[in-house]
Protein 1
Amino acid sequence: MLCNMKRFLLSLPVSLFFLVTSATVIAQQGSNPIIYADVPDMSIIRQGNTYYMSSTTMHMNPGLPIMKSNDLVNWQLVNYAYDTLSTIDAFKLTNGKSTYGHGSWASSLRYHNGTYYVSTFANPPGKTYIYSTKDIEKGPWKAQSFSPALHDHSLFFEEDGRVYMVYGNGRIMITELESDLSGIKPGTSRVLIENASAPAGNNIGLPAEGSQLFKINNKYYLFNITWPKGGMRTVVIHRADSLTGPYEGRLALQDKGVAQGGLINTPEGNWFAYLFRDFGAVGRIPYLVPVTWENDWPILGVNGKVTDSLPLPVSTGYQPGIVCSDEFDRSPRANTLPLPWQWNHNPDNNNWSLTKRSGYLRLTTSRIDTSLVMVRNMLTQRTFGPECAAVTALDTRHMKEGDCAGLTLFQKIYGWVGVKAGAKGNHRLVMVNTANGIPEEVASIPIHQPVVYLKAAADFRNRADKGYFYYSLDGNTWTAIGTPLPMAYTIPHFMGYRLGLFNYATQTTGGYADFDYYRLDNTISGNTGN
């Protein structure tokens, strides 16, 4: 009977669901956030009963992730639009340059005439990118790019076959693209809305941006985010009867800072706004907000509020769809990584391997580095809330004097636990903390065995935003090391914390570190994750 009641409730229109469930308790129902991890700037489409979502991963590669869901709640990575976005120095961490806080920004995912399209933009190198494929889950992707970079654009296919991008910051622009999407059609750029922030008032800190344009029942709806000074992220919607306007605008949602996104409907005809929320060190996390319609306007939320519960299925968790453990076991020729892994900037593919030693990830040094933020071949995954931890086993036998290898919680303010290699195998287990703005070795312990076990844990409960580090000599008994890391979401990196495996040289190149496995846990206690 409970299952029948659940099916009945989930089939109700959104408005009736909240009316019925206000006096009804059900065992399972969806809840916000739908993903407690850094998945910002979402763009979602539905094809039949399947939803696809693109998101921002900035300087990580491969990039422009594609996720798939059958229920809007449980998502799994199925593809990336590109392996690397650009080969300029900033993307390769060469010549002292990096692209932290930049790389691929807000994307736009669309389906038109049997082809999937996803577009993004990047500064540097100041370009707009469009990727297309017939098979969104397997590819291949065709890549095109042109200048300039159109900020926070929305790709839009009109029914007459013409293609547009809507973009801008404060002043929202529209431009028509060439029919082959190779660039902007000359003379077509014009102002669409002079001041898109106006519905939120005159005291604006962040002008309207994050454009997403939709055509529903022959009307055009443009979503933007703006941020009044002293206030919070705010959703503004403009509506028009024709693509080029005129547009009238409304303040659509101002609650919990949940904003930036667009509209999606279910096969049953229920509507939601997909948005995200800044949530401290874990990053920008996705929310779904119920939508009803009134006089052809989408009404976001219930009584103007973002609900904790949703008329959708319960989440089954993020592993292995968005994050995953990895034993690094591959066939002898399979030098491939599961999709949740991303490299920090472009990888140096000559200096990492899953095949040179069966069952291990090998990271080999190829240059001298002095700072973790400039190290190539750091392999990363998202952290996730409300708490999470990762464990690895590190074989140090082929590290050279001065090499540093280990496990990190990575953002501008980072910490790591690992091994610093000394002369004649005199290695030290260390914890490095950058809480004071510079890397400080706050703990150091001599080790006398070739394999050590490392653990990093993140506590995001109630915005604690603390990182903790542990070591073990047998993989079972864990000991805390160093000092807690005060994790903070910083604009220079513009990304939630990542867990990462790394190895870099400070004196001599050519040494290598072998990682036996990477195992995730959803608790932070020192005696778990073995």
Protein 2
Amino acid sequence: MDYSWEDISPYNVIVNTTGMDARAYQINILKSIYAGRNTLVVLPTGLGKTLIAVFAISKSLYEGKKALMLAPTRPLSEQHYDSLLKLLKINATDIFLATGSVRGSKRQELESASRVVVATPQTIYNDMIKGRLSLSDFGIVIFDECHKAVGKYSYTYIANECKERGIQVLGLTASPGSDQKRIRELVAALGIEKIEARSSLDEDVSPYVMGTSTRTVYVEKSEPIKAITAVLKPVIDEHLHNLYKIGMSPFKEFEHMPKGKLIEIGNNISKIEAKNYRFNAMFNYVYLLNLVHAYDLISTEGIYPFLNYFESLQSREKKSRSLESMLKNAEVKRAIDIAMHAAAAGEEHPKMWMIADILRQQGASKSTIIFVQYRSTIKKLVDILNGEGISAMAFVGKNNGVTQEMQSSTLEKFRSGKFKVLVASSIGEEGLDIPSVDMVIFYEPIPSAIRNIQRKGRTGRFRFGEVMILVTRGTKDEAYLMVSRLKEKRMFDILRRMGASMDRNPYGQSQYRQKKL
């Protein structure tokens, strides 16, 4: 069946659709939104959530109402503002980007005069509680990256105002997560009455997705890494066993212990009232926590991140007794010594050399994003790739001297092809206008449905893409790989069940607007 923007007439007349073909899933989702119910749209990265938002805004404008579009960061708000300027057939002065750089009184004036307001939720929250902005004239509020709308986040306050005033809500995300309780909290926070969830395999989406191949690449620990982990493991098990003996841990050996249980142990210790008992437990716990992190770094990240971590611990001005004891431990010192000798000999984690080999085989004309968990790993990997003749740059959050201008410059260079390999932290996963690439590499698996879907969505948009996940055998990588697969499947199962339940009990017009009639 052929689809046309005329299928959603008359609201299409306000949108500049030149050069854009109507897609089946977009038309189907928009018809659902136009029915007036508060809608959660779950759509993989790169499949046009912003365009769906623009058409939702067009209906509100056509009916004489204003529209508010929220995004969790200023760069993403600016990106949406630029998109609205291009796509909406209204005066540019009718669209206002509200930021903290605009004086409060001036912002009030511009928000009042504008037909479309784009902002971070914190800016709007501040204006609402100070009486500078009322939502009474708004027909729709769009919550981009709406999986953040839980707890006391500003999104939640604004969503409550929408419910009180009967304003339609549209939530957009690539993934709301895989925890049923969290998804229900999100649905409740936004007052969602209809779920429109799509994967790249759905019938109305698959014709528009070029497709990806996903491959898991296993690597073995190098001999220096095996030596370091062999030295650390008995020390870790010693302190875990100390916690086991006093009833604070159900595990004797840390390799049998899920990471979440480690956090749970700390929470339980903090509740102990007896001071001496709590001190003894906390001493062993802090020792354990630091060493488990170091063990994971050397196992799955690399020698440089491992040494960098210990440097950061040693440089602390104030150290707990537990930390002082750990840094003086003879076996810990021996592990650090092995790492230093390995680094001096040019050794690193096999993943880094594996990536260099993969990129050489791929060829210089193709683009790649490598997602990495830790900044220290990013730094070392970029150094190695450039040393191997592969042009790469780091893309990390605003910290340690990195500014927004530097981030923008890096992205612009990547978009224009001045370098082909972007080594990114989690900031590259969400929202920002990063172009589709030929390959996405996970330096390590991550146990998060949200982040997995966002990462994978960076390829396979306009041409066939590859996803490669690196896994170090015998490490937490293997567990995280399994968890991530299960969580992604669970997410869509939950969304389909909840969506079906809502469809069996339709409200027609929004239940929140009915309250006001």
Protein 3
Amino acid sequence: MFKTIVFCALLTTVNGDLDDILKGVKRNRDLEYVLIDLLNDIARYNDLTCMAIICDSIYLNVFEGTLFAKTFTIPYVIIVVAEHEDLLSPNFYTLESLRQARKDGCSTYVIILANGLQAARLLRFGDRYRLLETRAKYIMLYDIRLFKRELHYLWKRIVNVVFLRYHSKIFDIQNKPWFDLSTVPYPNPVKELLITRRIDVWRSGKFHYNRVIFADKTKNFNGEILDVVYLDHVPSVVVKKTNESRTVGGVEIEILNTIASKMNFKPKLYQPLNAEQNKWGQKQPNGSFSGLLGEMVTGKADIAVGNLQYTPYYQELTDLSIPYTSQCWTFLTPEAMTDNSWKTLILPFKLYMWIAVLLVLLVTGSIFHGLAKFYMRLMDYRNENKKYKGTDLHINKRYLDTKPVGLYLFEEITNSILYTYGMLLVVSLPKLPSGWSIRLLTGWYWLYCILLVVSYRASMTAILANPTPRVTIDTLKELVDSKIKCGGWGAETKRFFAESLDDVGQKIAERFEVIDDPDVAVRRIVHGDLAYYNSKNFLKYLSVKRKNVHINMNIDNSTMNGTETPVNTEMQRNLHIMTDCMVNIPISIGFHKNSPLKPLADVYLRRIVEVGLVEKWLNDVMYHIRSLERNEEEIKALMNLQKLQGAFIALAGGYFISMVCLICECIHWNYIVKRDPHFDKYAIDLYYQKRNKKH
């Protein structure tokens, strides 16, 4: 009797398990049919490039030959995961398969896993490391564990998803099992509880409502409010304050408003906590991020505006739109306090030109002296060959009478150089030399002097008529040679210079300081202690801001609201923007990581750029700043003592050299000439005649 009971119990158990198995097989067969209809619908109305199938051993029989035979020919990747595998840290083969599917550009993911927790961990892993294309189309089994509060952020990124919920037949035998097709309620915000939205119902091999399964949910947000975090950075975002109201404008705000009007959403602007100090934000010791990046990483903001650079650092943390412009990033440097007005006399010619003029002067003076000596010796030779009668005095008198006129000018080398220099200054010779070779050389030398003097005078006139030249830093080499410190915002900027491949960038990194407050940087620049790194337009804004602190620019800043008195800039340096660009960086608008907004927003942004609206908005923002830019007063064709400083220095130098020469002559007269035994103060001419004969 006992054996009979046990057998019956076993038979009952076996029959129950068999029913469950057959029930599961039948359910899987229905799942296969609904997948066939879904994939054919996707392939028919969408560009299905590749399909990634992720399943476990329980649902492996769904993906048999029947499914692929009844669907369009589609490349696919099948990934079978073990039931015990932790997909938040998948094994090597699963990881490589996911990478290959992403590399192949699979636009549809079919995730059929019996364990909802396992599917949730797979989505978290794929989103964190961008191994899953979140903007692709997803087909998943409905599981309540996928909609926990800590997973709500996933359904703001994966919005093209269809959940398949199996319902068995009820009451009437004729009613067959059916599938409920639902999706996330995007773009409606998910609050405390996520409730899926029904799309369609599949029963008996067909869809009941025949709706578009994967409709584009980003075309029309139906007036939903999206959180937009912004950072005040000219010209991307400009905050204007009038009385108690605050208006946010700028290039990126105009772009945002245009995209919002096309996609039908309302942007809600707000600033991150401690925006003035944190700005874009940095990684904290606990692993979180501050500032604007912190709002994007945590998913609190949908869009970020504030001059985000299109760099790998920002791309890793957020999704960036296509660049709408490119900005020149350079340094704001101090102008040198050195006044070079004392160089006025030498400024018309460069160094090599002065060297050439000096060499021509020495060479030409030596040639004049050599020709004069040649004529003097030629006359002496002729006189020696002639036989004269009379006294020596009579011969010397005839010699002096027949001496060529003007040769005494170049007889001595010092006089030759001085008279040659006099011709260079357009001073005529006392007498014209009699030698034809000297006369011809004098004529051609005069032509040279005229051309040289005219060029010098024209350049000198331009220098005196124009304002005093400014001594500025315009190249990276000049910045490195200046030895002043460099600064900018954030440790990422310093890392950018440290990782530079050229020596100049690495030298800048060695003396680079992280400065979060641009006002502090400007105060250091005017004292010649720092060069500040930022975009050229923002540096222009800082330069104008310093010069116009007493003018109300209606910009929300403590130094721009008219409460601060003008600074005394007489003893401070002027600011100068370096003309060389360190790098031209593309600028984009930011979206939260794996945002579904990006594809359509890129389309509208590209159209905005192509029609020239970005350039127009940029000119509108910078026009107000350029209009306040005060140039130094330049009164041309008006001389002052500062411009003639070089002339007075030259005159003072002449006085000094003349005085030194006079003192030397007095010393020579008193200590050398007067102490000579042959010196006679009553016959000085005889003394010098005897001395000349000795020499």
Protein 4
Amino acid sequence: MDNLDYGIIGNCRSAALISKTGSLEWCCLPEFDSSSVFAKLLDTEKGGSFEILVDDSYEISQRYKKNTAVLITKFSDGDNIFEVHDFMPRYYTESGKYHAPPEVARHIRHIQGKPKFRVHYDPKLEYALGKTKTYVKKNFVVSLTTKEKFDTIFLYTSFNKNAVVEGRELEVTKNGYFLLGYNEKILQPTSRKIYLDLERTKVYWLNWTNRTPTYNKYNKEITRSAITLKLLSYDKTGAVLAAATTSLPETIGEVRNWDYRFCWIRDASMVIKVMANLGHKNVARRYLQFIIDLIPDKDEKLQIMYGINKEKTLTEETLDHLSGYKGSKPVRIGNAAYAQKQNDIYGILMDVMHAQLVRFSTDIENGEELWGITKGIVWIVTRHWREPDKGIWEFRTEDRHFTFSKVLCWVAIDRAIKVARILKKTRKLDQWVPLEQEIKQDILENSWNKKVNAFTQSYGSDHLDASVLLMESYGFIHARDPKFVSTVKAIGKDLNNGGLLYRYKNEDDFGLPSSSFTICTFWYINSLFKIGEEDEAMKLFDQILGYSNHLGLFSEDIDFKTKRLLGNFPQAYSHLALIECAVNFANKAGEEKVLESMRE
């Protein structure tokens, strides 16, 4: 498999990746950031997988059940056909709570004939650090490891358990199932019960997507991206993950391999803003509660990222026994970036808080706590906005005065002023308004570079940076301001490579980037659209949509030459930016339609 040709299934507790041939190759249980049960994605020999194997006469195709997170892989040799419907159960119970157990269900649906397949069932618990032994018991198959720490996984099936474990041929004559559970079941599963779980899970997703507006253009892409963002949200605390994986490399054979199964304040806040715009109130509310829970002390500085269960220490380790995706070592778990200083997160958080207050001001819970956080953020920004930091791209070397960080410091104060007005708490404004003006002036004077006729990556630098395009999105500058227009054009000239964008072209800690950071291309497309270059924007948008995998999913990066997907997958950043672009185009198309009908 040369591309990240995987589908994601999940239930807002954990997730699994299934290849386009129906092989389960990445799954952590019981939660997103638990150790892996299957990690063939990161080591084809040692990682472990759960594969459905057929002979060469079968054609294999894959799709999502429309408007759901149920993945269907179809196996057909013309006469004999069956499907695997993969899902992780998630649905309302009679008590009004969500049922989302740490389980992967594989419903085997008989279509016609007597299709045959074999199973390669090879769990490798605890990141395959020790030996995993598998035993066939009366009611289930149990796999366990004791080396690193004790861990178990249970497999229930309607097929012959010994034949499954030994990889012998199985015949499909009626519907059947596999149920992989982190916990031993109290009631023995049945084919009927698994089918019922499948139907209930489908209904959950259909109801969820029904709350997303319908667009007359790019609706399919918007819906699939929204479902993917929902799959990366962790129900228990409200955290939103950057991606479902760890250590998928930004460039094959290099060392830019990071664990993304955490909640970055920046990524998550951007996701929440987009999801709230699509009408998904609860995701936004849960995330705001996550933030409130993280800030118990008024003088506590916000970290750039946290564990999904609000952990503050994310110690980075390497798993040297795993060979890495396509041999790209090291495989990392944990992420040392949690200790970095990035001044932009305060503005991003204030922006999302302000957006929620505007949208839900009549029924906003936690208003007093949000006002407390607002004052705390202003206090921190006031004291630290003049300091350099690591920036949005998390340079691991020296700190700089990054333009993006400074703009977001301005956003923090601008939104705090707006929040104060909404909450009628105006006594602070005589201090905050001059501060907002001071930061804005500082940016206009120091980040504008006459030589390149653009706002640059950092103060005094000649380097361009795609993150500067967000100045307009955050309201710092008008889209038609000549300085913004010339910045967009300069970035297009310097960072555009065949319709895909570099984040920046100056060398970082690891040399020159050789892949495109997917979100940057979407930012550029959005900026072109805003400055009036709509045809060019649409052309580039349609082009990048063609680089998604077979299911419309995107990772973090795209290789400039081969267009293969690289980096962690699926990436929340990429899908939130896709939605922003698509909604702009769809709204424009809707406006044009209205004008046409008026003319008629």
